Amino acid sequence: MNQLPSILFLVSSPLPARLLRIFQKGAQVEVELGSDLLTLLTSELRLSKQGIEKIQTIFWQGKPVDDLAQCVTTENGELALSAALPGLVGACLRRGGVWSALRDSISHQGKRISERGKRGLITIKLFNFMLQEVGPLLLNRGVIVTKDAFVELCNSTLLWDQVIRVSSEEKQLTKDEMREFLNKTDINHFKLLVSQTPE
Fold first, then answer.
1. What residue numbers bound the domain in which 30 lies?
2. How far apart, in whole angstroms, are the C-alpha atoms of residue 163 and residue 45?
3. Quick one: which of 42, 153, 183, 192 has the most CB atoms within 10 Å?
4. Whole-model pTM?
5. For the chain, where are the E strands, in sequence order?
6. Does position 92 have pLDDT exceeding 90, yes or no?
């Protein structure tokens, strides 16, 4: 995997909502491939048992997942996490719910793939309460975003109101320098890391 330019934002608390919204479209994260989703959530993303219980709806490759231990990560896969969704549809999609049998034909069927130990990228999408619950953990460990997403992010006035410092490769950048760099560069992906001051 090629080394991508890292850009570190130090922001004041609470974490700006604009940063969290990047997960609605999805951001890439480097993980160990071939591990099951339960291992991914606990070992890689450092979620507690209580945190995992709050994730009521999980999609892997667009299919609902009930058994986290039977669903394994693969290169360029897509994981979507959500709290409880409203209505009958939400009840049917809820993992392990009483209505989950109604969607058996579209549920993810677990299978083992021999990629264990290899590192690779998956895309993670977050919705509703999961933005606040999981988003800060991902931003702190680093996510990969496209240049277009980064330009859109840096054009947010509300974001810069909370930015204390921006640095890349240990060089501090002003807002204008950051925008100029993005306008001139041919690089299409960046690694974004976000730290925040204590509340």
1. 6-196
2. 25
3. 192
4. 0.84
5. 6-11, 27-32, 57-60, 63-64, 78-82, 119-127, 143-146, 163-168, 171-173, 189-196
6. no
